[in-house]
Structure of histidine kinase:
Amino acid sequence: MTNKRKHAGPQGPPAKDGAVTAISPQALRRQAEARLLNTPAPMLADIDSLSQEEARKVLHELQVHQIELEMQNEELRDAHVALDFERARYFDLYDLAPVGYCTVSRQGQVIHANLTAASLLGTTRSELLGRRWSQFIHELDADRYYLQSRKLLGSGESQSCEFRMVRRDGRSLWVQWSATTSVNLEGETELREVFSDITARKVAEQALIESGENYHKLFTSIDEGFCIIEMVFDRQGNPVDYQFLQTNPSFEKQSGLLRATGKRIRELDPGMAERWCEIYGEVALTGEPVRMVDEPREPGGHWFDVHASRLGGPESRKVAIVSNDITERMQVEIRLREAKAVADKANRAKSEFLSNMSHELRTPLNAVLGFAQLIKSGSPSPTPVQERNVDYILKAGWYLLALVDEILDLAVIESGRPSLAMDSVSLDEVMRECQAMVEQQAQTRGIRMRFPVDPAPLPVHADRKRVKQVLNNLLSNAIKYNRPEGSVQVDWLVAEDGRVRISVTDTGQGLSADQIGQLFQPFNRLGKEAGREQGTGIGLMVSKLIVEMMGGAIGVQSTVGEGSVFWLELNPATGAPGNAVPAQDESARAMHGRVYAPLRKLLYVEDNPANLALVEAIIARRPDIRLLTATDGDAGILLARANLPDVILMDLNLPGIDGTQTMNVLAGDPATARIPVVALSADASADNIERGLQAGFFAYVTKPIKVDEFMDTLDKALAFDSAAAGRTTGKERP
């Protein structure tokens, strides 16, 4: 009979916060009557027993009650909607909260838990419920949790602390825990616990603690003096004082300022304030670090290497200062400079003496040799006995003259004042002259000489006289130290690096590795002093110095019992004699498929022959690098000044002055100061490596050599030299 239709509930939709608005009964009846007026009249039952007025009233009441029931049903449905809304919000706030929530009984069992709590503990909510909460507390922190929970139950006041919990997989995590109490419907006390994961924070805190401890240990134990100061400026912005914020024991020992922390420099040492305020103030204002050597203020004082840099941003006035006592090093350098001055003076005196001695010896030799030649060619001819005696005189005289020339030559070269007339030299012409000079010597000993037939006239950039001197020395040695009826083979070619290589191969007894290491040392004849062959033992040393001063290289390969190959390499000339560019030279390069760029020069200072041989073998793989060698520091300094190599490889344990002292001498010379020097040493201790780098070496390579790392270091040094010299890689150093 009733007309049911869907309509909005009397209380309207749920409020934004999910609450339902209540309506009074009077308002509900008025709304029902109003709705009845707008509703068509239903079919009524038989109302004959009632008067028309009574029936109308009954019908009206029934309709009103029906509408009230419908409205109450709608209100109930709206309440259910609101309740579902509240449940959903509860799920968001409770189950998906970023912290773990748990309800724990007084007996310690988990009654309720949200999803986050289960996730933090690495388990599921169903497995968590009903378990004892103490099972998840780390055994080392169980007492802390027990005391906190007892205090909570005893006082009723909320508690909080940090402790470790254990996940299901056994891993631990640090949590921030807080808890309150509540009473449930049965009147039982429960613990409402909240916890969050703070493991990352605790790890960071521990790392910070360890870092601080390490900093303190380093701060107090390092040999370098270290302090942090804060500058004080006047109203005009001028630095007038500074306060010590931190100082380490080494700083106090070096400066003599004891217990300086918290004090100002003017109250500790006004004189020091006048010296340093302006420097440190500039560092604080500009942020530009400063490094300088602080010289002693009085005799017997100390030198310090001081480095100052600003701490913090532009507004900071704090400056960190590191000082290192370099007194010993400076004293060594002073002694070294004094020793060098004395050595230079002695060397000049030696050169002058040898020069004078050469003149004094040549004068009588001129008479001896001149008159002996006159007697031999005079008329009447000398008797056979007289001619034999004259030959002895001439042979001894010429040998003595050659000896004087070699000694003087060595003195001139060692003094760094050789006279070189560099030009384009035709190698085949020089070789023909040398062949003519040694033919008689070879025939006398029965040695077969083989020279190239119709060789290409390869021009080299060299001093013609010096090239002939070196080639004569090599050819003469190949003949003297050959076996009877042996042979000497001469070859030359254009090497892969574009340079011209001349090789002299003999069939003598050969040389051992130890002998090769001593071969280019002056006055060392390798045990041949007692033999029948005359010699000074300085010819090869002179030859080596001459070749390297011309920008070339000299070396030897030898096999004991088979013979030796002495070789020298010279740079190709840019033009033939007469300034004409020979087609043969370009053709010779074309035969190798490319025109090679100028070489980079590497000087290796080393007295150990095995180490020299190793580096020579390594560098042989690099056609872009030419190796120069020296066996002691003095020779290395001489070669470096004469050749200006791109990189210097320095052994530290050298005879005479060691590698570090040699490097310091080179660093003090403007001509060689920018050349990077790489230390090479068998001492691989961290302290010595650090000391070597602090001393000024570009890099520190340890033995045994790792070839790849060695070549990488060498490439970096070459790149550094290119940048420092303001040129591209591969360009010749002038």
Observations:
- Residues 1-20, 576-597, 727-734 have pLDDT under 50 and may be disordered.
- The domain at 222-325 is CATH 3.30.450.20 (Beta-Lactamase).
- The first strand starts at residue 100 and ends at 105.
